[in-house]
Amino acid sequence: MTNSMVYTLASTNQITPSSLDYLEADGSASPNQRILPLSAQVNEHDHLTIGGCDVLDLIEEFGSPLYILDETTLRTACQQYRQAFERYYPGESLVMYASKAWNCLAVCAIAAQEGLAIDVVSGGELLSALQARVSPEQIYFHGNNKSQHELQQGIAAGCRIVVDNWHELKILSALAVSPITILLRLTPGIECHTHEYIKTGHIDSKFGFDPDQLEAVFAYVAQQSNLHCIGLHAHIGSQIFELQPHQDLANVLVSWMETAKRYGLPISELDVGGGLGIRYTETDDPPSITDWANVVCKHMIKACEQANVPLPRLICEPGRSLIGSACITAYTVGGQKTVPGIRHYAAVDGGMSDNPRPITYQSVYRVLAASKMSAPLSETITLAGKHCESGDVVIHDAQLPPLAPGDIVVIPATGAYNYSMASNYNRVPRPAAVLVHNGQAALIVERETDADLIRYDRLPPHLQV
To answer: Which residues carry out catalysis?
Structure first.
């Protein structure tokens, strides 16, 4: 891979902004406050590099579209979370990676190497964590509708099971032949200013036991000798920039813990969930990982002091803020179309199948011209996906240099809920993913082939003509 150097806009003597504006010289920033990965630079060819690897070289070797995951950014985020809880919380703490953001063997292995536990929400995510050699005691099995088979998988593995509702509770009680370690998920009734689809803490939510069922749930669990309840869990949402709700959450969890102990439940863990947001655009202003952890710890300590109870093991489970800013997605530009007086389109070789967030959540991203980083952003271009769907638009009215077929553009901050929500819409194979570090690239997810798309199809005999 080619050598890289950091450029700043000032050093180019340009007046018109360029993609170089997205490169940040401040290497001390919290990863979730950066649009690009920490290792992003531009080399002597005016190409974007990540992890010391030229993005154009990566496309040539691994194909396009391509997820490019920066190992340094991911590890740094893990370390900042773990070190912040060690610094600000005098009791025991545990940081857990919410792997639904991006669950694959390599990502689970890196999180585990950095001392994080893993939060899974399906049998497939559980299998991935186990295959990545994560200790079962470091796996917490979440989900609002775990099947009986999935619950049996969790029991067999020996992981902690976070029980979401009465249905699961009664299935577990019937399945258990020896004590099962569980936590209970409860709905805290706390609103956050985030997208409606990712609000999980308010009362009208599919997640968790309702607060008015609290004592009935505790009474039932206390009577089940095969259920060992050690903790309570609540989650207030995702892509959150506010800090005040975490003060409210600490008070709610500690009050629940006191109630549970009146029923003889040995609650020793309180899980505050995750939800810290990241910077997708310049207008996003999330708290740093360290500041978020400081607030969470401070309010939990205060709530316990006011209630005169010992500090519990404090658990958090970030996902997006660990992995989101660590990845970019690279595309190759194809055809273009100008609608006079209305819009100029440039199509790329991916779209809603590898990043469904714009069409699902109306999410906004930024785009960089990886093959011409210093070129002035003189054009307003709508970056369109390749799928047969009018809404398949990656970015509306982006500022870019003039593009030509074969140019490489990248979308930053695509580590969370891009690969994990990818589909085969229009029978498009899902992209490959590579892990980059110190000028080396390692394949962590192979690109699907056309043959993969029909592997599970079956043609009945009467149709075989």
So the answer is: 388
